[in-house]
Design brief:
homodimer; Farnesyl Diphosphate Synthase; 2 strands; 72% helix; globular
Amino acid sequence: MTDNVSELLSRRACQVEAALREWLADQPDVPLRLGEAIRYSIEAGGKRVRPALALECCALCGGQDRDALPAAAAIECVHTFSLIHDDLPAMDDDDLRRGRPTNHKVFGEAAAILAGDALLTLAFELIVRHAQPSEKACRMALTLARATGRQGMIGGQVLDLLAEGRISGANDATAAAPAGIELVRRIHEQKTARLIAAACRLGGLAADAAEHELAALEAYGLKLGLAFQAVDDLLDVTGTSRALGKTAGKDAAAGKQTLPRIVGVEEAWRIAELQAADAADALAPFGGAAAPLRELARFVVERAS
Amino acid sequence: MTDNVSELLSRRACQVEAALREWLADQPDVPLRLGEAIRYSIEAGGKRVRPALALECCALCGGQDRDALPAAAAIECVHTFSLIHDDLPAMDDDDLRRGRPTNHKVFGEAAAILAGDALLTLAFELIVRHAQPSEKACRMALTLARATGRQGMIGGQVLDLLAEGRISGANDATAAAPAGIELVRRIHEQKTARLIAAACRLGGLAADAAEHELAALEAYGLKLGLAFQAVDDLLDVTGTSRALGKTAGKDAAAGKQTLPRIVGVEEAWRIAELQAADAADALAPFGGAAAPLRELARFVVERAS
């Protein structure tokens, strides 16, 4: 990781973690055990790439950090909800996440499901409560809902499980179609890239960016997300559990259709690099001011190569 | 059921079901199997009491049906999401719901969890996309989030599972406290009554009701919700699976702390009737115009006595 990206990510992580600490503090009506389960996964760390993107994109468009913080925290809530539910026995059945036991291993399945549900709800609560004015808050909440819901991340997880045969779908065209590069690309886009694109768009919305700027930020986020997921697939092949903080080799064991399985490791790296380069190019309208976001795109590919 | 209440409920059900059909129609990016799983539970029926309350409360405050429809549909999405997740093996482990196999029995656990997640997300999407103007949409989304999240229904489900010992919570004051009428009342309020109160408030918000009207509608909904849950507990003792459309006697089998278990069947009926009467009284500011809502409160208690 270059010093610049490293410094950027840790500074942004501090900001969003402070906001989350405040907004996730105990409240009289929240059962203590539920608060614990929520904070266990929120505080498990991770690089906070999504909120960092929201804050950076807001700054790039001339906005203040405080305008983007509710959306930045919300997107981390959605991301954390998705990790908790994806790790469940009925889904990817993972015991480790970021080097620690997964939520359901510590709190049990019921609490893990409900902690995820609560985080998803909280994401929308944070935006409609703290983002101003209302018109902006509604656009933000709609952006987040589209990227998260049946047409976004949740739909992508269904596609992924259909492709693995873990959800049966005799009537589903997707399940019937042969697994190939097109299907993997669609899964990567819906499951991962749309939420990252939403993070970037949310930053732009926070800064009242013009439509052409929002489009550029979304294009950047989408390509970055595709590169990110390609590298994630590659790390599962080439990495170790320790470096990953999760169980390595799971994808192959599960028979998951990943990019390296379909096109080979070398071609998968080439695709990841191409997408990261496309991401950087999408920022052309912002000129030199977008240098930190371009560096972030390079970092995503280089973190493991 | 009196003819009036019956007519009211079926008319309101038609309206909200038409709206849901439109808003849940297939879209290119939604996996077919996910759409099927979502519609399976949405179309399973039920009396649509919550959306009916939203529409009636809106009408009572002089609003148009179209103003309340997004919120009415949203609250049915949240209710349906909660049924799907509550029925999961890790939670209440129910095989039957409204006389049909539960969602996870048909589509598998993974699809059921994701269909619930998608419905929760869709609830917020419907409000911020269709409710107008933005300021009203934000107030509606916040009302829904508070009633749904960690301090509302989801928190209530955690309390319920803690009381049953199905979530362990050594540090939780609630788990340590002796189960009693106070705990049961708190579980009923958070798990059931707050969402029903939110349905009523959402109707008022749709109609731009005054603060004192919103407060009256919420008080009505809260008492109605408490009566509703008390009767639900009673039906589990006195009803059959067929009448219930779900597995009867589950509460006792699970060792659930229900109202009849703690205060006896007779006293539980008295409490339910008292709460329904309180609900009717809360509508005093609306005078005779609130007659349909008062009848609805009576119906809730009388549906099985």
